[in-house]
Amino acid sequence: DIQMTQSPSSLSASVGDRVTITCRASQNIRTYLYWYHQKPGRAPKLLIYAASTLQSGVPSRFSGSGSGTDFTLTISSLQAEDFGTYYCQQSYGDSFTFGPGTKVDMK
Amino acid sequence: QVQLQESGPGLVKPSQTLSLTCTVSGGSVSSGGYYWSWIRQHPRKGLEWIGYIYYNGNTHYNPSLKSRLTMSVDAAKNQFSLRLSSVTVADTAVYYCARGAEEFDFWGQGTLVTVSS
Q1: Nearest residue in B to A99, CA atom
Q2: Burial zone of B107 (CB within 10 Å; 0-12 exposed, 13-18 middle, 19+ buried)
Q3: Which residue of B has its CA nearest to A1?
Q4: How far is B7 from chain A (nearest CA, A)?
Q5: Which of B55, B64, B103, B113 could form a disulfide with A49 if both were Cys (CB 3.0 to 4.6 A apart)?
Q6: A-to-B residue pairs, Cβ atoms closer than 8 angstroms
Q7: Distance between CA atoms of residues A85 and A93, nearest Å
Q8: Which member of B46, B107, B110 has the closest CB to residue A98?
Q9: How far is A82 from chain B (nearest CA, A)?
Q10: DSSP-assigned beta bridge partners for residue A105
């Protein structure tokens, strides 16, 4: 299986902050990388697909970059509704895998 | 807007079979180009992809679950289903159905399935 890691595992931030989350794959996954946001008790929501393409309806303050093994999700100006857990996911391998998540909470 | 809703027993005994159904509204499971997936989330833990099915019955399962897993589609009811046999406490999780094969753009609200005697 392709293993996904994320850093940091958690962070505290304030509204208006720029937030960056990184995701690393254990092998080259080209751009088969997706980002999700999950709030407690809710299903994950797709933010970014193909590493850098914004899903329809997702605010432009979210952006993704990277290819190969290293990827980044950036929130340019954190809003109150952005708190929660962010997951990356790959679909390159035979078994699709998610990262362990990055929890973003209020400072 | 596509909507998905999981249904099935919330409690399953060890060694028995877990069965869940996902009902799709606002779209058709037999629409070409869309795959239908199951994903689970263990309590207070991360997400695990289970597998997907196409309307024609083609499937792709997580190799770690493949020997216990069966998915099916019922186009007439606009539903797709999951059966996981020989469950253990390790199968306790919130089970989500979702649209997509590689990325998942619409999700159900999730249903908690507890494996316990």
Answers
A1: B46
A2: buried
A3: B63
A4: 15
A5: B103
A6: 46
A7: 24
A8: B46
A9: 18
A10: A12
Residues A4 and A88: beta-carbon distance below 8 Å: yes
Cis peptide bond N-terminal to B43, omega within 30:
no
DSSP per residue, B46-101: -EEEEEEEETTS-EEE-TTTGGGEEEEEETTTTEEEEEE-S--GGG-EEEEEEE-S
pLDDT (0 to 100) of residue B44? 75
Q: Are the C-beta atoms of residues B84 and B11 closer than 8 Å to each other?
A: no
φ, ψ of residue A73 in degrees (nearest 5): -110, 130
Running DSSP on this structure, what letter comes out for residue B26?
S
- List CB contacts (< 8 A) between A93 and chain B: none
Name the strands in the sheet holding B69-74, side by side, starting at the edge strand that comes first in the sequence: B3-7, B18-25, B79-84, B69-74
Chain A hits for B101, CB-CB cut-off 8 Å, are 91
The widest CA-to-CA distance across chain A, in whole angstroms, is 39
Start-to-end CA distance of chain A, whole Å, equals 36
A101 shares contact with chain B (CB less than 8 Å): yes
Q: Identify the residue whose tokens are 């890691």.
A: A5
For residue A94, list chain B residues with Cβ-Cβ distance below 8 A: 63
Nearest to B22 by CA among B5, B34, B8: B5
